[in-house]
Amino acid sequence: MLDISLEEILIRIPVLLITVTVHELSHGYAAWLLGDPTAKNEGRLSLNPLKHLDPVGTIMIIFSRIGWAKPVPVNPAYFKNRKRGTILVSIAGPLSNLVMAFAGVLLYLVLFRIGLMEESIFMKFLLSFFITNISLAVFNLLPVPPLDGSRILSGVLPDKRYFGIMKYERYIGMVFLLVVLVFPDVLGEVLNYLIMPVLRGMIRCAEFVIGVFL
Known about the structure:
Helix content: over 70%
Radius of gyration: 18 Å
Number of helices: 9
Largest sheet: none
Shape: globular
Number of domains: 1
Strand content: under 5%
């Protein structure tokens, strides 16, 4: 995890600030559109990264691209349809990462075609940008508390079964956090099997779009 150059760290910091801010803002904005003012009232509908960063999660993202931010407060009681609202709000963050990742892949391939070298700082920034966004999207979609995937699960499973699992949420979350902190490389290898197909799919889609317009 620590096999990373100073240049890469300096590139990942602005990538982190953009990625995390948009991710959390998307959660809060989705909740607000569905009638929940909690995030807005607590100042989380903000482009200020400092309102969204979690210290441990931030360090993890910088060094391994796998991490988390400070969760946006959501009150499902405001939703007309609690289950649907929970799913939509939960998926908004990872979806924003996938949209940003695709934009990054598309711009990277366009600039590469017109001759901008891979060794340039901006190309390295774009590479880090779309890889980080894909990594965060996939990681956060894992159905493990307190990640977004566990909230999505709440909208899919019957209430009795879901709450039967969630009564152990704190313990599951603590064990998962311990695994992430102690064995980040192992988790990274596992996630690569999920991340690479997404990346390859985005590259194919971006190449198709470029082929149509260029």
